[in-house]
Amino acid sequence: MPSSAATDPGEVSDIDLVKRSQAGDTRAFDTLVTKYRGRIYAMTYHLIQNETEAWDLAQEAFIKAWRALPNFKQDAAFYTWLYRIAHNVTYDWLRKKKIQGDGEFDDERTEHRVAAGAEATPKGDAAPDTAMRNAELGQRIQEAISRLTPEHRQVIILREVEGLAYEEIAALVPCSLGTVMSRLFYARKKLQEQLKDVYETTL
Amino acid sequence: MKAILPALLILIPGVNLFAQEKAAPQPLTVVKPATEGKVWGALIFATNDAAQLIGSQEKAPAHLGQLNDRLSKVFGFKHFEILGQHQQDIFREYESWVVPSRDLFLKIDSNGPADNGGVKLHLQVWREQQVLVKSDAVLRAGSPLFIGGPKWKNGRLIFVLSLERK
Amino acid sequence: MKPPSEDHDLIRWIDGEMNDAERATFEARLKSDPMLAKEAEELRALSAGIQAHLPAEMKIPHADFFNSQIQVRIAQMDLDESRQKQAGNTSLADLFLSWIRQPWFATAGAVALAVLGFVWMRPHTQDTSHSLILSSYTPGLGVEASTYHDNEADATVLMLDGLEEVPSDRKISGISVHRSETEPEVASTTLFDATGSPLLVISRDDAGHPLFLTNTPRG
Prior knowledge:
The structure holds three protein chains of three kinds.
Chain A: H1 8-22, H2 26-48, H3 51-68, H4 78-97, H5 130-146, H6 150-161, H7 166-172, H8 177-194, H9 196-199
Chain B: H1 4-22, E1 35-47, H2 67-75, E2 79-91, E3 96-98, E4 104-113, E5 119-127, E6 130-139, E7 145-152, E8 155-163
Antiparallel strand pairs in B: 1-2, 1-8, 3-4, 4-5, 5-6, 7-8
Chain C: H1 4-14, H2 20-32, H3 34-53, H4 63-85, H5 92-101, H6 103-114, E1 119-120, E2 132-137, E3 144-150, E4 155-161, E5 176-177, E6 179-183, E7 188-192, E8 198-204, E9 210-214
Antiparallel strand pairs in C: 1-2, 3-4, 6-7, 7-8, 8-9
Helix pairs in contact in C: 2-3, 4-6
């Protein structure tokens, strides 16, 4: 399950904030927005790899959550419920845009821009410093993920970033457990191909 | 001669087909998405020096009566000319671009209808690759939006955006 | 190619989705199958790499504006809703009073106004015939936006001050667009002039910036 920002104390404060928001307290909702905007933005960004649109979609998710608050029964953690809304908003956007329907993306179309705050090192340059090597690897991983289809990118993000269990992924997508596993396997193999020099071991 | 005619009749469509295959490829299927209305956008150059005008013949639509006088009341210049104009649908689900010039243009996203026939918009003014301002607005017919842009040639570039009446 | 169940076993093992018995069986296989063990180790390292380099939380750009925009939209939504609920003969004054009596009014207004650098104009509920700027944000350093309704000009004004001046020798040219066609599949829009000739194609690059492509005449 995607975890809330804190454990027990966090849960208690979320319940209180949600109840107040449901009663129309926009300041309470604003606190929830501040608490979870970083995680929701990260999720939308990783899925669509576009800063501007991810920002708009994250905002859209919170607006939808506000509208849907009367229907939130608190039978799940607030963040889990919010996350589901954000995921659906983002995935609907991806489907609407229909970026390159079948197969892998065209490299030119999905050339990844480095996320804000990340260090960029020119390819091919010697990077003796560990931090620079790390930044370069991060960039390569993000580029490789951007080349996956939305369906494969989705399962990778849900598993590797959000840490969802297979059943949770299957319920969210929605699809069968077998499909989750097949997509995860395929996506990882594709990433492995592109990052061969990094992760290939010798027997 | 009689034998040649059927052959010609067969040949001619074949030639046409050949010509079509050589012609430009068919354009992508165009879908007209749902819209919230239409806007008219223009990039206007305002100046006090008539010699600076480029001599554009563009005219504002009739529903924007006395546009120059109204601009003068706000910006204080004497002369105005429309450098470019663009009438554009406001798409319900997609962004709309209003591009009277490559140098200064707008992106519009609909946020749904507003009362009195208005439209709620998120609009962004772009100057080449840079966003100058992001705004949430309500646009109503008969009530244009004047956006004061950058200075140019001792005058000013102004964007006018107007919702067309249905 | 391995059958799907073998692939599934591999990733289930990497992701800790096996029970104890399944894990013991699979690990025994790994010991006897060096190729499988190599593949498993590489995929495990890849998974760890992805987790290390894809943060679960990111700093959102323009965070204050993000929040204030949400508050403004919520306020607008609630205003629209309360207006719709009112009977037709209700006066605008009554509508305005019922709006300000809402519990969220003060907090929504305080939040929006408290954010630095923003201009927020409250909807003039007494007159809904004008266009309005509800909020605006200028990313550029030193640029300020101010907004007001000019009654004499009968126009709503959004004034941007502090913009970098366009050099006098720079040629600013306009185009006259009479219609456009949007192709959602490729997220692009073609602009046409009065004669139906294409002028420009607009698309977006992956950073979200507009991309202008000049359309060359065909044939």
